[in-house]
Design a protein that fits this description.
- This protein is α/β, with parallel strands linked by helices.
- It has a single domain, classed as Alpha/beta knot (3-Layer(aba) Sandwich), CATH 3.40.1280.10.
- Helix 3 links the parallel strand 1 and strand 2.
- The relative contact order is 0.19.
Length: 227
């Protein structure tokens, strides 16, 4: 048994049975096959609503790109969802968008920009066999030129009204509903690995327990004495 799994099981002893059962159920539905990147979102309530949507649809990773606008979670909108997600922030490079894209491509993700484009496809027709990251841009300008240049594909939501686009949080909800519905009924291996599940469980348990540092210290002391 890995030390990480052993620690997670030890800490789970300080969590109620109901909470442990809920963790187990939710982790089984988490995925990294689809992820989301938010580029320079300057309205915290919109970005926070996307976090809540990601949690609801089982999307574990969210990538926050901060070129001009720093992002902070709006607790009234996110409703605690950020503590259950794995947040990746890009804010230290000259082009944080490129940094994010390169990092994702190294992990095997296709970059899919959510914007009307000459070569776009409807969200219902998007190929999900490969791992994909949906890029959402700012409320006014949309995705950046860097994203357009390096994107592997473009996707749109069919619209039939006068308004040109949905609010970003609505767009994310529609896209993730469509994609996760198809993903969960496919033959794709979309679930987390056992190692990822153990790592995530440890993170969630730590977020749940009061004064967890002291309990971990006691665990390490007991383990040391057993050797």
């Amino acid at each position: 048994m890995s030390e990480e799994k052993e620690l997670a099981e030890y800490l789970s002893g300080f969590v109620t049975h109901a909470r442990k059962t809920k963790f187990s159920t939710i982790i089984a539905q988490r995925t990294r096959h689809i992820t989301v990147a938010l580029e320079d979102i300057y309205q915290p309530h919109n970005a926070s609503a996307v976090l809540r949507t990601c949690d609801c649809f089982g999307i574990q990773d969210v990538h926050i790109i901060e070129n001009k606008n720093a992002y902070s979670v709006n607790p009234d909108v996110a409703l605690g969802s950020s503590q259950w997600l794995t947040m990746h922030r890009y804010s230290e490079k000259e082009s944080n968008t490129i940094d994010c894209i390169q990092s994702l491509k190294k992990k095997g993700y296709k970059i899919i920009a959510t914007t009307p484009h000459n070569n776009d496809c409807n969200i219902s027709d998007l190929n999900i066999n490969d791992k994909i990251c949906l890029f959402f841009g700012t409320e006014k300008e949309g995705i950046s030129e860097d994203t357009k240049k390096h994107a592997d594909g473009f996707v749109k939501i069919p619209m039939h009204g006068f308004t040109e686009s949905f609010n970003i949080s609505v767009s994310a909800a529609i896209c993730l509903y469509e994609l996760t519905k198809r993903l969960r009924t496919s033959a794709i291996n979309w679930q987390l690995t056992e190692s990822e599940k153990n790592e995530l469980l440890l993170s969630w348990v730590r977020n749940t327990i009061h004064k967890v540092d002291l309990i971990e210290k006691d665990f390490k002391a007991k383990k040391k004495n057993r050797k």
